[in-house]
Amino acid sequence: MDILHDQDNMVTAKISTNLKENIDILEALFVECSDVIKRTLVIGNYNKVQIYMIYIDGMVNKELLEEDTIKNLIFKMDDLPSDNQYEYIKEKGLRTADIGELLTMQNITQTILSGDTVLLIDGYDKAIKIASRFYPNRGVPETKTEVVVRGSKESFSEVLIINRSLIRRRIRDTKLKVKPIQVGVRSKTDISIMYIEDLVQEGLVDEIVNKINDYVIDGIFDSGMLEQLTESSWYSPFPQVQSTERPDKAASAILEGRVVVMVDCSPMVLLFPTTIVSFFQASDDYYNRWELASITRILRYIAAFFAIALPAFYISVINFQPEIIPTPLTLSLAAARDGVPFSVVIEVIVMEVAFELISEAGIRLPGPMGSTVGIVGGLIIGNSAVAANLVSPIIVIIVALTAICSFTIPNEAFAQAFRLNRYLLIILSAFLGFYGFLLGIMIIVTHLAGLKSFGIPYLIPFAVCEVDKNSETRDSILRFPTFALKERPAYANQKQKIKLRKKNK
User: Fold this and answer.
1) Sheet strand arrangement including 242-244
2) Where are the alpha helices (DSSP H) in 231-343?
3) pLDDT tens-place string over residues 43-70
4) CA distances from 470 to 274, 276, 406, 467 (A)
5) How far apart are CA 280 and CA 456, in angstroms?
6) What are the TM regions of this chain, as residue ranges (predicted)?
């Protein structure tokens, strides 16, 4: 049995005033950890005292540690007093500004594992935290999944400190708060919750924290894991939490009264709460002229409907209601299907699965090879299938158009939900025809109407009577001019409803 930890993996050992006892505890905790660096020093000329320094190699800034800490302790502590040596070393022996006091062995171990340095002094039952963490990172990368023509090219990285600074750089407000928590019995993953205190709805931050703390889990390694733990309707294919890699989008969400949750080691942040409209909005909608942004949004909504409904609609019409098609087009479609041995349903499903496989292969293959496989693979398979009379040309066109439409949705998770529900409509249309198609649409719309994201109806502003639709619809299907977007959404604190007004002259 591990006598140093309790059932929640918390260190139970106490800090002693005897340095040797503390060293023995830390040696036992970090046994067989070759990357943990430990050093014992004796400082002071007349009033000597023994100190113990411990940190993890590769997680600290060694230059800072050696120049500003170790050298100063060795060469500048000759006049060490006989009493209150802890405070003297803390105030005059450490040149770095970011230091802290640790009162438990649990705090000491977590500080070490987080990349900071811990200094213990003989005769004192407390330790000094020296901020020295330095993680290997790729800086501020360029956005990959939410590319825009106009606007910032920055994206979040895997380092939590950098991600917080990207938001701070954009919102210079003392009311922008950062609430830190840790999740994971073993990973102790750092999480930052960012919000503006007078814009967020009362109780929302506490509700998010409670949702996160509802589970005891070994580790959290990406925001996607946290997203799944905080969703109320876990069975729904539609995401109830929005994710983004763009700092400007996250900052805009905060100014709208939303909460941003960052997970260390994850380049994607979460936005709480969310509505269906949020998934159709792209960052450059607000950087381009409103006419262009409005047309683009309308195209996205139309494309989203095609992405989920086009194959099923084709099946229901061809198999059950061919009379609604003009006669010349009917003859053309019949001629195209001449010699094809499979039914329309089989054709659609086979081609849909083939395109999904090509898309998945393109994602997994590195760099330019992935996009090449996606384009060339689609062309080769489509042409070969038509040439071999396995599928008709119209099926290839429909499936390809459906795939293109799904890629116009700015949020990948939301696009995947549409792709998944496409198969539901295909199956219903195959058995029930046009009635099955309409039934599937009704099921999906009813499901969406019942979804909520932290108490906020998912279909705002389309299916909720309690909100000011005149205000909400100005930034939904259409994007009104910037000067007309005067109010924050319904999920913001209504005491701070106005976000844009003219100055009093």
Assistant:
1) 176-183, 189-196, 259-263, 269-272, 242-244
2) 247-255, 290-320, 327-336
3) 887 788 899 999 999 888 888 888 878 8
4) 19, 17, 29, 9
5) 17
6) 301-320, 394-411, 423-449
Amino acid of residue 320: F
The gap from C-alpha 265 to its chain's centroid, in whole angstroms, comes to 11
The tens digit of pLDDT for each residue in 137-176 reads: 777 888 888 888 888 999 999 999 999 999 999 999 999 9
Counting runs of H as helices and runs of E as strands, what totals does the chain give? 16, 12
Percent of the chain at pLDDT above 90? 53
Residues 250/432, Cβ–Cβ less than 8 Å:
no
Segment 390-434, tens digit of pLDDT = 888 899 899 989 989 998 999 999 999 999 999 999 999 999 999
Residue 251 CA, chain-centre distance (Å), reads 14
**Pairwise CA distance, residues 115 & 129, whole Å:** 11
Estimate to the nearest angstrom the gap between the alpha carbon of 108 and the chain centroid: 30
Report cis status (omega within 30 of 0) of the bond before 461: yes
Q: Exposed, middle or buried, 495 (CB in 10 Å: 0-12/13-18/19+)?
A: exposed
| Of 236 and 327, the one with more pLDDT | 236
* Model pLDDT, residue 467: 57
Residue showing tokens 């429909």: 398
Phi-psi region of 235 (alpha: psi -120 to 50; beta: other; left: phi over 0): alpha
Instruction: Name the pLDDT band for 475 (thresholds 50, 70, 90).
Output: confident
Which backbone phi and psi does 332 adopt, to 5 degrees? -65, -45
Side chain identity at 212, as an amino acid letter?
I
Q: ω before 237 within 30° of 0 (cis)?
A: no
Give the span between the Cα atoms of 219 and 187, in whole angstroms: 5
Q: Tell me how far apart the alpha carbons of residues 389 and 376 are, in angstroms, rounded to a whole number.
A: 20
- pTM for the model stands at 0.87
Neighbours of 158 (CB within 10 A): 18
What band does 1 get if pLDDT is binned at 50, 70 and 90?
Answer: very low
Residues 6+ apart with CB under 8 A from 170: 247, 248, 251
Residue length, the chain?
505
pLDDT classification of 298: cutoffs 50, 70, 90: very high
Pick the closest to residue 167 from 248, 107, 109 (CA basis).
248
Q: What are the residue boundaries of the structural domains of the chain, listed by start?
A: 19-130, 160-274, 290-457
